[in-house]
Design goal:
- By secondary structure, this protein is α+β, with helices and mostly antiparallel strands.
- The protein folds into three domains: about 60 residues, no CATH class; about 90 residues, PDZ domain (Pdz3 Domain), CATH 2.30.42.10; about 200 residues, 2-enoyl-CoA Hydratase, Chain A, domain 1, CATH 3.90.226.10.
- Helices cover about 30% and strands about 30% of the residues.
- Strands 3, 4, 5, 6, 7 and 8 form a six-stranded antiparallel sheet that branches.
- A hairpin with a 2-residue loop joins β10 and β11.
- α8 runs parallel beside α9 and α9 runs parallel beside α10.
- It is globular and about 75 Å long.
Length: about 400
């Protein structure tokens, strides 16, 4: 009996392995099962329906179908259907570009843009970039990329067409001062100058002027270093310029706020699937007697509004400029197995006073109202808003 049991063991193992292989195949191809068997063994869920539709397109559509491209487009349209301007799907290549941008570097032409009806308006052109070498400047509007119009196109899609591997070229149609022209730029790896600073003098008072372009990784170190250097050189006050700063990483907003606020609450967050979380100042703030001014405009959003609102609520700074954008929600990046990622709204944030700057959900809200209204006149060589901020920092 012992020998008989041992002799049948290889057969049992073989049959078990065969059943496993068949099960795995049928699990991945439920449409090959007979109808009654499929109804019993396979849950007829949305995932199965999607796979069936993809299989049908791949098998029967009149021309070849790229399954990966269909998946990317499906996810993109699914996110767009949420009617949430702040949520995005990043295809694998786009996600790589996004990660580089949050690290303060990317491959492209070196400029920041803002969407307008007929394309992208240039906000900033970085020194030493292909865009700078090509004569592009703030206020120019890009209407076409490689001969194709970008009017009405999603800004993420439009900017993705401009970016690309270093060494490749892109042809832009640009409206500048009412005239149209074409410029061909050779893309390069561009290091974004996140922080610019200088010492300004107003009525004999030295003021540290610090401009922050974005809340990228490590931005707080650069801001702190710039401010402390200017204070060591004799600055009597600080102007933090967050104009045209669309935000970035939440932790950087908390750290930058902590340069000015010594302790206590900076911001709190809460979402349907996210419990409330309170972010306090991390310590090491500059002397509380040093006057601080935050300069903002209607394109100061998200992390910029957290810093501005926290300093205003905690009565640590005077806010100068125009009302900020009005975004009261935050997003989280959730990587996917295909190498892409979902950047989706997961909750709202609340300033120390408890106020939310949005309009309820993802709607644009009231934003931060400045303590001193000031607006730059683009037709004059002087920056009127900056001059107002410098006077407040005396």
């Amino acid at each position: 009996m012992r020998r008989r049991r041992l002799s049948t063991l290889p057969l049992v193992l073989f049959l078990g392995l065969l059943a496993l292989v068949i099960g795995i195949y049928l699990g991945g191809h439920p449409s090959t099962l007979p109808g009654p068997v499929r109804d019993v063994l396979v849950e007829d869920g949305d995932g199965q329906i999607y796979d069936e539709a993809m299989d049908t397109l791949e098998r029967d559509y009149y021309r070849p179908v790229d399954r990966k491209q269909l998946l990317n487009q499906s996810l993109d349209h699914a996110i767009r259907s949420l009617d949430d301007r702040f949520s995005n799907y990043f295809a694998p290549r786009d996600y790589t570009d996004f990660q580089q941008a949050t690290e303060g570097r990317f491959e492209g032409v070196g400029m920041s843009v803002d969407p307008v009806d007929d394309g992208l308006r240039i906000i900033t052109v970085y020194d030493g970039s292909p865009a700078k070498d090509g004569g592009l400047k703030a206020g120019d509007v890009i209407t076409e990329v490689n001969g194709r119009s970008i009017a009405g196109q999603d800004s993420t899609e439009a900017t993705t067409r401009i970016k690309g591997p270093a060494g490749t070229s892109v042809r832009l149609t640009v409206r500048s001062g009412g005239k149209m022209r074409e410029v061909t730029l050779k893309r390069a790896e561009v290091a974004i100058p996140v922080v610019r600073s200088q010492m300004r003098t107003v009525d004999g008072h030295k003021i540290a002027y610090v401009h922050l372009a974005g809340f990228t990784a490590g931005a707080h170190d650069a801001v702190a270093e710039a401010i402390r250097k200017r204070l060591a050189d004799g600055a009597d006050g600080v102007v933090l310029d967050l104009r045209d700063n669309g935000g970035g990483l939440l932790n950087e907003a908390v750290e930058i706020s902590s340069i000015f606020i010594p302790d206590g609450r900076i911001v709190s967050t809460k979402g349907r699937a996210r419990p409330e979380r309170v972010y306090d100042a991390t310590g090491g703030a500059i002397d509380s007697d040093i006057p601080v001014v935050v300069l903002v405009n209607d394109r100061s959003a998200s992390a910029s509004e957290i810093v501005t609102g926290a300093l205003q609520d905690r009565k640590r700074a005077t806010v100068v400029g125009t009302r900020t954008f009005g975004k009261g929600v935050f997003q989280e990046i959730e990587p996917l197995s295909n190498g892409g990622a979902l950047d989706i709204t997961v909750g709202e944030y609340f300033l120390p006073s408890g106020r939310n700057l949005g309009g309820g959900g993802v709607s644009r809200g009231s934003g931060v109202k400045p303590d001193v209204y000031a607006k730059d006149n683009p037709k004059t060589p002087q920056d009127e808003a900056l001059q107002a901020a410098l006077r407040e920092a005396e």
